[in-house]
């Protein structure tokens, strides 16, 4: 098993509890944007969608659950820097946002997921998004995202994301 270091934290935030993961990706912003918005490229590491994003809704089929496609409402899209969507789910709507900032030949990525009104725990969600963001990077590198092992993320990172939220807005408290 490979040891993975978490790159995210939980925050109480101004809009409620959320999971935040940040990454510096060694690719230019347009390459990263294309990887998260082009259905063929997205399909190599996460899932693909059908429909016209200009309508505000697409149908997403994830690699993890191809038998359960779901509607995705596009809340905000500003190429190549910001994408906010709501994935409709029987377990609660997943409100997600990705912000990209150019840093020369690299890109700073910030991923956020609201945690209120979900049937899933942050202890499971955090490792999952760490896994998918690593798959994104492997896809950008031209590698095989399937070479990553789920077991290196879950349960390995569950304790980091399973801690209580701080009482004040901000990052998670230090691990004991």
From TrEMBL:
Entry-linked SUPFAM superfamilies: Bet v1-like (SSF55961)
InterPro entries membership: ASHA1/2-like_C (IPR013538), START-like_dom_sf (IPR023393)
Activator of Hsp90 ATPase homologue 1/2-like C-terminal domain segment(s): 29-140
Family per record: Belongs to the AHA1 family.
Protein name per Swiss-Prot or TrEMBL: Activator of Hsp90 ATPase homologue 1/2-like C-terminal domain-containing protein
Species the sequence originates in: Corynebacterium humireducens NBRC 106098 = DSM 45392
């Amino acid at each position: 098993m490979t040891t993975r270091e978490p790159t995210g934290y939980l925050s109480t935030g101004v809009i409620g509890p959320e999971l935040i993961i940040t990454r510096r990706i060694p690719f230019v912003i347009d390459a990263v944007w294309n990887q998260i918005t082009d259905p063929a490229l997205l399909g190599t590491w996460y899932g693909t969608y059908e429909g016209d994003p200009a309508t505000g809704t697409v149908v997403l089929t994830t690699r993890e659950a191809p038998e359960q496609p779901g509607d995705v409402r596009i809340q905000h899209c500003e190429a190549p820097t910001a994408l906010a969507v709501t994935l409709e789910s029987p377990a609660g709507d997943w409100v997600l946002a990705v912000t990209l900032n150019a840093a020369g030949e690299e890109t700073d990525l910030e991923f956020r997921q609201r945690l209120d009104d979900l049937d899933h725990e942050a202890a499971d969600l955090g490792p999952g998004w760490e896994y998918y963001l690593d798959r994104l990077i492997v896809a950008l590198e031209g590698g095989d995202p399937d070479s990553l092992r789920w077991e290196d993320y879950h349960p390995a990172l569950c304790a980091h994301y399973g801690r209580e939220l701080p009482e004040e807005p901000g990052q998670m408290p230090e691990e004991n």
